[in-house]
Design a protein that fits this description.
By secondary structure, the chain is of the alpha/beta class. It is built from 10 helices and 10 strands. The longest helix is centred in the first third of the chain and has 18 residues, at 77-94. Its EC number is 2.1.1.80.
């Protein structure tokens, strides 16, 4: 009965939201959502679903739990140093008008990190910088650009001073950065992608998908890159056979589309 309850929940979520929970690793997803359901006092997933359809805040909490909105500026700093000191300069030598996408951007720390790097290299104004996520609540926070002090702990001090305004424990992103990032809602597994990207950053999200869903996503990302463009993934998301997607390793966790 419990399995039937969860399967019906998956079916109804897909019917009403286009989110296919069957494409996520079931054990992790079910455990996470069971904790939330019980915390909110619902005995079954169907009663939880019916409540979500009536209460917007509960639905947003479900989305937040599902999409693991854990993000920081400059997460894994040595990886971002490569972006700043090697890959972006290389791209700018070829073309000053870059097109960059932060996929599954959560609450915005990642695209704002990109914006700071581009601003430092006098390229922000000429760059198209997209940022997408499935979670409306996360996107709302991203657009506001307000973060607790712990989120900026890895940001170089000079950048904190230049691109943030501190108000107690909160740090406000500068208007320059906010204006540069175009936030939009998107379901990676369902929606079509734009194309011609120099850089796509999608980190610490793909790990939650099934192998089949990962395969589809890597194909879609590869098609969205221009020849020579880079895909930057998370530290637990190494692609073991990048050639099948017309990609090749550029550095650890960076994959270049073949063709240049």
């Amino acid at each position: 009965m419990e399995d039937q309850d969860f399967l019906l929940f998956i079916k109804k979520i897909k019917e009403h939201t286009s989110i296919d929970l069957a494409l996520y690793k079931e054990a992790q997803m079910k455990r996470r959502l069971t904790t939330l359901r019980m915390k909110r006092g619902y005995n079954t997933f169907i009663s939880f679903f019916e409540a979500m359809m009536k209460e917007k805040e509960l639905f947003y909490e479900f989305l937040d739990r599902m999409t693991i909105n854990v993000s920081e500026f400059w997460r894994n700093p040595n990886r971002w140093e490569l972006v700043e000191q090697k890959f972006i300069p290389e791209m700018l030598k070829r073309n000053r008008r870059l097109k960059i996408w932060s996929a599954a951007c959560s609450t915005g720390e990642e695209p704002y990190t990109l914006a700071m790097i581009l601003a430092e290299q006098a390229a922000l104004g000429e760059t198209t910088l997209h940022a997408t996520d499935i979670d409306d609540g996360a996107l709302e926070k991203a657009r506001k650009g307000m973060y607790l002090d712990r989120s900026v702990r890895d940001v170089p001090p000079a950048y904190v001073k230049k691109y943030f305004k501190q108000d107690g424990l909160m740090f406000h992103v500068s208007d320059e950065l906010k204006k540069a990032v175009k936030f939009q809602k998107q379901n990676l597994l369902v929606d079509t992608f734009d194309s011609g990207y120099d850089l796509i950053v999608c980190r610490n999200v793909i790990i939650y998908f099934t192998e089949e869903a990962k395969h589809v996503l890597y194909q879609k990302f590869a098609k969205a890159l221009k020849p020579g463009g880079l895909l930057f993934v998370g530290s637990t998301e190494q692609i073991f056979s990048p050639g099948q997607y017309d990609l090749e390793a550029a550095e650890t966790f960076f994959y270049r589309k073949k063709g240049v």
